[in-house]
Structure formats: C-alpha cells, structure tokens
Design a protein that fits this description.
Blueprint: H1 25-37
Protein name: MbtH protein
Length: about 40
C-alpha cells in the first residue's frame, strides 16, 4: 500500500520530537520516487 496524506514520512519520532507526515498524496508519491533515485540517502 502506498503512503498518502497524513501518513508518516519517517519512522515514529521519540517522545517530545516532531513527527513528520505527508501533507498530500503528491508529496508521498514524490518521497517514494526520491527513495528510488537516492535510496542510501533517504
């Protein structure tokens, strides 16, 4: 299942830290594309 709006963009953050979530489906799709191009850096 692909990520979408409101899904986490990163693993769960420790208590008291920011939790990064996708603003929309396009940003989730872009993140997946970036991961395919620069897998080691993402």
């Amino acid at each position: 299942m692909s990520a979408g709006r409101g899904d986490r963009a990163a693993p769960p953050a420790p208590e008291g830290h920011w939790e990064v979530r996708f603003a929309d489906a396009a940003s989730a799709k872009g993140w997946e594309s970036l991961g395919e191009q620069a897998r080691g850096n993402t």
